[in-house]
Amino acid sequence: MEQSEIQEKIFAYSTKMKGKKKLKEKDIIKAIMAETEQDKATVKTALREMINVGKLMYSYGGGASSVEIPSEEYLKEKGLI
Q1: DSSP state of 22
Q2: Full pLDDT tens readout for the chain, 81 residues
Q3: Structural domain containing residue 38
Q4: Which of 14, 36, 43, 62 has the least C-beta neighbours within 10 A?
């Protein structure tokens, strides 16, 4: 399976869970590993690439970090759109 396909699945899962639950990195990795039968390193690499380009971002609240889809306002502030 290509990295881009894994990234699409990560983004779809993040979109589905948006507003329902704060996703930790390990939650996303476990869900995508179960869905695609890829190994942990492959899924983690795809997730990190998405964070590096700004498609996903880390946030911190309530004493724990989570991964979420950035808002348009955030993307404009960072010059990504």
Answers
A1: P
A2: 789 999 999 999 999 998 888 899 999 999 999 999 999 999 999 999 999 988 999 998 878 899 998 887 877 777 766
A3: 3-77
A4: 62
* 63: CATH: 1.10.10.10
List of long-range contacts for 42-47, beta carbons under 8 Å, 24+ apart:
42/3, 42/6, 43/6, 43/10, 45/3, 46/3, 46/6, 46/7, 46/10, 47/7, 47/10
Exposed/middle/buried for residue 7 (C-beta within 10 Å: 0-12, 13-18, 19+): buried
Q: Which amino acid is at 5?
A: E
Spatial separation of the C-alpha atoms in residues 7 and 15, rounded to whole Å: 12
Neighbours of 46 (CB within 10 A): 24
Intra-chain end-to-end CA distance of the chain, in Å: 29
77 within 8 A of 64, measured Cβ to Cβ: no
